[in-house]
Design goal:
The chain has about 220 residues and is an alpha+beta fold. Helices cover about 15% and strands about 30% of the residues. A seven-stranded mixed beta barrel has the order 1-2-4-5-8-7-6. A hairpin with a 5-residue loop joins β7 and β8. The longest helix has 6 residues. The C terminus is likely disordered.
């Protein structure tokens, strides 16, 4: 996730001219919508509308040097209409056509004087909205990208070589359940060194249980 500090902002560090604005890019079902805090902003060719009242939980995540887990953040939005009609609420109206949950949110940190931003300072997925009792504000919780993903970890440990027994390794000299060579393989082989290439030459590639490319060092990879 890029967090490069633009030169325009770097040049202002140490001065009293820094004016930061939160930019929220929210990829909803119908369209991507753009919101800002404090003022209207044009960034990356998109117009950000000032509806962000606050973002809580984000600052603490970046100053915490002990914990690597990112907690949920909360974005508070202004739900009031752009007109004087108090019966019309912006986000309440959007709920009729938009699904707010599980949508990608990107937060940028825009500097007014430099006219640029730290792009994608935070990326996550939105949760169910919560409206205040008077409907004037809406809170959206958001989960950090890598906390949101539930990556299944296989119980089987991948190895360089195949784990199945070849016909010369079984007690009775017959094919094993994992390597049914006699039934499906290319006849004529009596042993196997368990490499991917050896498995392929025996016509058993689909039964290979090893991992053909293991390790980061190119010179040490077992490519079968």
């Amino acid at each position: 996730m890029p967090r490069t500090l633009p030169a325009g902002i770097s040049a202002l560090i140490g001065s009293k001219n820094l004016q930061f604005v939160w930019l929220v890019e929210w990829q909803m079902t119908g369209a991507t919508r753009y919101f800002s805090s404090d003022r209207a902003v044009t960034y990356g060719g998109n117009n950000y509308v000032p509806r962000v009242l606050s973002i809580s939980g984000l600052t603490a995540q970046f100053i915490d040097r002990k914990e690597r887990d990112f907690e949920e953040i909360t974005i508070e939005f202004d739900n009031l209409s752009d007109t004087d009609n108090s019966n019309s609420f912006y986000f309440t109206g959007l709920t009729a056509t938009e699904n707010f949950e599980d949508r990608l949110i990107k937060i940028h940190l825009y500097e007014v004087t430099a006219g640029t931003a730290v792009d994608s300072l935070w990326i996550g997925f939105s949760k169910r909205p919560k409206f205040s009792s008077d409907q004037k504000t809406m809170n959206i919780g958001a989960t950090f990208l890598f906390d949101y993903l539930k990556i299944p970890v296989p119980k089987h440990r991948f190895q360089h070589r195949c784990a199945w027994a070849f016909i010369n390794e079984t007690p009775d000299g017959l094919q094993s359940l994992g390597c049914p060579y006699t039934s499906f393989g290319t006849p004529g082989f009596t042993t196997c060194d368990k490499r991917g290439s050896s498995c392929s030459s025996r016509g058993m590639t689909r039964f290979f249980s090893g991992w053909p490319k293991v390790g980061l060092n190119e010179a040490k990879k077992d490519r079968g």
